[in-house]
Amino acid sequence: MYKDLKGKVVVITGASKGLGRAMAVRFGQEQAKVVINYRSSEEEGLEVLKEVQEAGGEGIIVRADVAKEDDVKNLVRTAVDHFGTLDIMINNAGMENPSPSHELSLEDWNRVININLTGTFLGSREAIKYFVENDIKGNVINMSSVHEMIPWPLFVHYAASKGGIKLMTETLALEYAPKGIRVNNIGPGAINTPINAEKFADPDKRADVESMIPLGYIGHPEEIAAVAAWLASSEASYVTGITLFADGGMTKYPEFQAGRG
Ligand code: BGC
Predict the structure, then answer these.
(1) Is the distance from CB of 228 to CB of 23 less than 8 angstroms?
(2) Dihedral of CA 230/231/232/234: which sign?
(3) What is the CA(189)–ligand 1 centre distance, in A?
(4) Which residues are catalytic?
(5) In terms of Cα–Cα distance, which of 115, 20, 130, 121 is closest to 76?
(6) Structure confidence at residue 41 (pLDDT)
(7) Tens of pLDDT, residues 30-84
(8) What pLDDT, on a 0 to 100 scale, did the predictor assign at position 139?
(9) Pocket around ligand 1: residues whose beta carbon is below 6 Å from it?
């Protein structure tokens, strides 16, 4: 628990499932005021709201498609109208779908780039605009991935979006550091979330992925939520412009583990 997160207003995009959901609950435990964004299922949004309240936080749900500028503006405006301010923006919404790159349609490319990269930009921009105009030393956390550095065949659009998030975050961190605004990335590895449910249900695929993780297991969403809480807290007051990898060591070239090479 981080004392200074109590009462803080946090917007989390894509909060009806997976990592977003785990972060919403964690910020609920921190007694924060959580703005739960969902895109398609109001029912899931309401379930998360209940979990946030049961955990000790307050919350509201707001529908928004992060790829749409007006939706993102409305999301941030609603947070401020309802809770009076904004302290933390977590741009988490994202998607992935594999395709051989030479067969990837422009439509599928655009869809992933629009949600993952443009959505993260729009959320960052709206939050930073509010921070600057209101002289708030706010906090932006973007959801990157180990694939901001590890190339990923069949996921060229996803890897490109995460590589883009890396430099976007570093640039925003540099640009707004003089105002005391911190901007960081979390870089999860393979985590047990709905995005991966099908893949990890297959024991062979699961074992294959586990063999690429030095710590030896698929991560839990709560382990990512813990990183988000720390980054958002004043314990991380001197940290900006980084990607904090929470990946069980996946980015450390696991194939070299036995001294090969
Ligand atoms: C993806 C997962 C994948 C992991 C490791 C994440 O960014 O969302 O599907 O298992 O990277 O490759």
Answers:
(1) yes
(2) positive
(3) 6
(4) 158
(5) 130
(6) 97
(7) 999 999 999 999 999 999 999 999 999 999 999 999 999 999 999 999 999 999 9
(8) 98
(9) 96, 145-147, 189-190, 195-196
173 CA → ligand 1 middle, Å: 25
Q: Which CATH number fits domain 3-248: 3.40.50.300, 3.40.50.360, 1.10.1040.10, 3.40.50.720?
A: 3.40.50.720
- The rounded Å distance from CA 137 to ligand 1 centre is 32
Burial state string for 150-178 with b = 16 or more CB within 10 A and e = fewer than 16:
bebeebbbbbbbbbbbbebbbebbeebee
C-alpha distance from residue 115 to each of 69, 91, 99, 143, 228 (Å): 11, 10, 17, 12, 20
The percent of residues above 70 in pLDDT, for the chain, comes to 100
Task: Report the residue among 117, 144, 146, 185 best suited for mutation to probe ligand 1: largest number of ligand atoms under 8 A from its CB.
Answer: 146
Task: State which ligand 1 atom lies nearest to the alpha carbon of 147.
Answer: 7
Q: Which atom of ligand 1 is nearest to the CA of 162?
A: 7
Residue from 191, 213, 224 to probe ligand 1 pocket by mutation (most atoms less than 8 Å from CB): 191
More confident residue, 194 or 161: 161
Residue 13's pLDDT is: 99
* The overall pTM is greater than 0.85: yes
Ligand 1 atom closest to the CA of 94, numbered from 1: 8
Helix pair 119-133, 156-176: axis angle to 10 deg: 10
* Residue with CA closest to ligand 1 atom 3: 190
pLDDT, one tens digit per residue, over 85-138 is 999 999 999 999 999 999 999 999 999 999 999 999 999 999 999 999 999 999
Q: Where are the domains of the chain?
A: 3-248
Pick the residue whose CA is nearest to atom 10 on ligand 1: 190
Q: How far is the CA of 202 from the centre of ligand 1 (A)?
A: 15
Reported confidence tier of residue 189, pLDDT bands at 50, 70, 90: very high
